[in-house]
Each structure stands twice: as C-alpha cells, then as structure tokens.
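quick one before i forget lol
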Amino acid sequence: MRLAESFLSEHRDWLQAATGQARQHSDALVRARARPGVQLRGERLPIEWREGRFARAELGEHGLLLTQPVGGSDQRMRAALKDFYLQQARIDLGLWLPKYLPTLPRAPVAVKLRPLSSLWGSLSPSDGLSLDLALVLGRPSAFEYVLVHELCHLIHRNHSRRFWQEVETRWPHWRQERDYLHGDGLAIKAELRRAVSA
C-alpha cells in the first residue's frame, strides 16, 4: 500500500497530464461522431463508424464508412476525410476531362485540387489548373461547370464575349451553375473547412 501511495505521490503531475490528454481525445472523438453526416456531390451521407488499424474514409453500403483506430486522433480522421474527398474529386475529373480535351488547343500541364479561400478555380500563366476541393461537396454539375470554365481559359485568358461563347458551347446552362455557386458557395466552402480543418 505504501509503495502505491509513494508512486502516486511521485508521479501525480504525469498522471494528471496523461488523464487530461485521454479526456481531450475522448472529447474530440465524441464531437466527431456527433456529426450528422458529411456532404458529397450535393447530398448528405450518413456516417457509419468502425474500429480498425488505420484512420480511413470510404464509401460504404449506406453512406460514408469511417474507420478509426482505438486512440486515433481527430486530426488523423480529418486527414482521412480530406484524402477521401481528393479521391472522389479525381474520379469525377477522370470522367469529365476526356470529353473536353479534344476540343482544346492543349491540355493543362497539371490539375491541382485543394481548398481555396475565395476562388473556385484558376489557370496559371503556365497552364496549371487549380480547382477548389470544396467543389466535390456541391452538386456535380457545378463542379463540371467550373472545370469547363477554367479549361476555356486555355483558349481565351479573359472573360470576353468570345470566352463566354466557348463556355456556352460546352456548357449551355452555365448561368444556373454560376448562380448556384453564388448562392450556396460560402456554405459549401465552410462545410469543407469544418470537415477537414483542425
């Protein structure tokens, strides 16, 4: 008994710190698991949790399947969710790009997906295409419109009448998608920040 009391007395600070960290981890996990679902392609997917060796997010039979190891951190789960969104966005781009590339003077030298603060996409002077990762959360037609918009900058680097004619040739309902992004865009960007940012 004295040995145990002596150990507790000598290691009191360490024990308090360790139990505090465990409580913080538990609180973060409870907050994460309280999410009503995640947004993908304009729909809210329910989340199914399971225990596993690695943090991972994938489409399951009934929604999003999130795997988290015992003792896994909220930060690792957010990284897994970001990887999932990147994978899904690449799938969409892989379906759409082949439709448009034959009608363009050249292909973009690279396509990058990442969270953007205000823009939905941009084309660099060296023909590098950047797209906001948040686009995969919104409706697919808006994502495809932004892709078309930026690809048309390979033809015209401005927003002239000729540029918009190129867009309209490839995406006749572009105004509806632009209005959707103006109306729902801030909420979509905020949803991505909540999901993948610490």
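fyi The helical segments are 2-10, 12-33, 74-100, 140-152, 161-170, 174-196.
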